[in-house]
Amino acid sequence: MLEQSPMPVLDIPSLRDKVSPAEWQARVNLAACYRLIALYGMSDMIANHISCRVPGEEGAFLINAYGLLYEEITASSLIKIDVKGNILLKPDFGDLNYGVNRAGFVIHGAIHEASHEIDCVIHTHTWPGMAVSSLECGLLPMNQTAMRFLKIGYHDYAGVVLDTAMQAKLVEDLGSNNALILRNHGLLTVGRTIAEAFNAMHRLELSCRAQLAALACNAKIIQVPQHVLEETYMNYQPQTRRPYGVMEWPALLRRLDRLDPSFRN
User: Residue limits of the Class II aldolase/adducin N-terminal domain (predicted)?
Assistant: First the structure.
């Protein structure tokens, strides 16, 4: 019987001794977030980005190397850049010599520069997200989960986000919301922590899937009174509940550790 050869993996030297303990912890959590986005079916091969602010370093954030699948991202594979896209610390990728996708720093850099209280930004191109982003009605508050995003922002499509001139409008359209629908494009969520941003994206994705399923039934949608929508929305706000992610993030990390703990490398 032929022996099965091991699955090929990238051998990236560890950066643990080259960064602060706080940055290393941020790297571990961000790598975990990439793995979770893949695990929950929200990745798009090597496209899209998740970024997080580097603790104690003004204007610096971590982002994925353009060329890695989300399922193979590790703490040491993340690239540190500033809000202008300049590379501050890059892993040794050998002959692959991966860099950063321009759309990543244009979108993420704009938000990190404008909102210092935001630590994490997640952007996806899932089919439910792209479908809802293409509907004139946008996201409908047709169920309890979607009511959390009653005041979601919208950003009109103006082409691939490669021009820094687009940044101001993007920030304006996000406003004080924690989620933004990029029309004819995809979804974006932000959070004061990585766990909080992931929680928002997971729930936004579920809301989009539920809406498409309901609309596909071609039946009348039950309308919830506006005052109930407003009350439900307020029940989801930071001033009325504990921060999102506090409860589930340790459990999600345990799940990743059971499946493949290499994200910690």
Answer: 28-212
